[in-house]
UniProtKB/TrEMBL annotation:
<feature type="domain" description="Peptidase M20 dimerisation">
    <location>
        <begin position="157"/>
        <end position="255"/>
    </location>
</feature>
<dbReference type="InterPro" id="IPR036264">
    <property type="entry name" value="Bact_exopeptidase_dim_dom"/>
</dbReference>
<keyword id="KW-0479">Metal-binding</keyword>
<dbReference type="GO" id="GO:0046872">
    <property type="term" value="F:metal ion binding"/>
</dbReference>
<dbReference type="InterPro" id="IPR011650">
    <property type="entry name" value="Peptidase_M20_dimer"/>
</dbReference>
<dbReference type="GO" id="GO:0016787">
    <property type="term" value="F:hydrolase activity"/>
</dbReference>
<dbReference type="InterPro" id="IPR002933">
    <property type="entry name" value="Peptidase_M20"/>
</dbReference>
<protein>
    <recommendedName>
        <fullName>Peptidase M20 dimerisation domain-containing protein</fullName>
    </recommendedName>
</protein>
<dbReference type="Pfam" id="PF07687">
    <property type="entry name" value="M20_dimer"/>
</dbReference>
<keyword id="KW-0378">Hydrolase</keyword>
<dbReference type="Pfam" id="PF01546">
    <property type="entry name" value="Peptidase_M20"/>
</dbReference>
<dbReference type="InterPro" id="IPR050072">
    <property type="entry name" value="Peptidase_M20A"/>
</dbReference>
Length: 355
């Protein structure tokens, strides 16, 4: 099956991270396809998810291990049908990350047994990637891990850490017609949030490698005519190598005047640029894919962080597209064959010439 047809079929499955039945339906589709291609396929079950591992040798340890995730963020029903216009595919997950999943599936089908190649198709990257962490703990790994969840113009070797937390404000309820008789928890929450926001620098597209903060969920109040006594806000902070998350959390608690609950911390991820496998992969991609491809850093997070310590090198790259998590997610069709063929040449020709 053509790789673009695989993408279209998988996008039809609304495998939102929280819908484990649909995620497992996508895993079952991948399993059937790869078994028909006579690949070794194993399924591991954890926390209600079915995680697929496939390889051309059957070993949990490979020379080259690919990683791509099959879960997506929520979207409207219409987004789960791929539209093809002007050389682009649009739809939920075409870029993040089912386009990459399809590339890996057909790469495995083409790979020669002289190089051991495998892939982990993980199920919950959008909500933390614990299925990837589980698979690493089960002994799956590779000398070089290639995470397909990035950008075709870069070989990414660094990504920011994540600090997810909740601000909780208290107040005193009263009738909204006499707000002076109470204390509005929403007001307290806003005041505390604005103090926290001052801890973070201004950022823009050209100066983005800095700590960032985004308010992502806000709740407070239950009826229109009552001053609320409780309000909450979830914050998502991203931090660079210059920041210790424990110190950042301490500062947030000190300035906010609110109760601060830590939800999750994910460490900063980095691979040395002069790593021989990183340099070899970059050289191959310059020759096979794009002479202008460069080493890069990533504001977002991928499952790459879970492979730290389980591989000699980890790189992140991907297809050409944009609009991930938006209503206009798109993928450049011609980039699909370009990336697949470049990676195929790396596996079959360039890998054996590594330093």
């Amino acid at each position: 099956m053509k790789t673009t047809d695989l993408i279209k079929q998988m996008v039809r499955i609304p495998s939102v991270s929280s819908d484990k039945n649909r995620v497992n339906e996508c895993a079952a589709f991948i399993t059937r396809y790869l078994r028909k291609k006579r690949l070794h396929v194993a399924m591991e079950r954890t926390n209600g998810y079915t995680v697929v591992f496939a390889s051309n040798t059957g070993s949990r340890q490979c020379d080259i291990l690919f990683n791509a995730h099959i879960d997506v963020v929520p979207g409207e029903r219409t987004q789960f049908a791929v539209r093809e216009t002007r050389g682009k595919l649009t739809g939920r997950g075409v870029l993040d990350c089912k386009g990459h999943v399809a590339v890996v599936m057909n790469l495995l089908a083409r790979a020669r047994a002289s190089v051991s190649v495998g892939a982990i198709f993980t199920c919950d990257e959008e909500i933390g990637g614990l299925t990837t962490k589980y698979m690493v703990g089960k002994g799956y790994g590779g000398k070089l891990v290639i995470v397909l969840d990035g950008n075709m113009d870069r070989v990414t070797i660094a990504q920011k850490g994540i600090l997810s937390l909740k601000l909780i404000a208290r107040g005193m309820a009263c009738h909204s017609s006499a707000p002076w008789r109470g204390q509005n928890a929403i007001d307290n929450l806003i005041t505390g949030y604005l103090k926290v926001k001052k801890l973070f620098p201004m950022v823009n597209e050209k100066r983005s490698w800095r700590n960032t903060l985004a308010a992502t969920i806000v709740s407070g109040g239950s009826v229109a005519n009552q001053v609320p006594d409780r309000a909450e806000m979830v914050l998502n902070a991203r931090f660079t190598e210059k920041t210790r998350p424990q110190e950042l959390l301490r500062k947030i608690r000190a300035v906010s005047g609110l109760r601060v609950q830590r939800i999750m911390v994910s460490p900063f991820f980095y691979v040395q640029e002069n790593n021989p496998l990183v340099r070899h992969f970059l050289s191959s991609m310059k020759q096979r894919l794009n002479p202008g491809i460069r080493i890069g850093r990533m504001n977002g997070a991928t499952d790459a962080r879970h492979f730290s310590g389980a591989a000699k090198a980890i790189v992140i790259t991907g297809l050409k597209g944009g609009g991930a998590h938006s209503d206009h997610e798109w993928l450049l069709i011609r980039s699909v064959d370009r990336l697949e063929n470049a990676l195929y040449e790396f596996i079959t020709s360039d890998w054996n010439n590594r330093p």
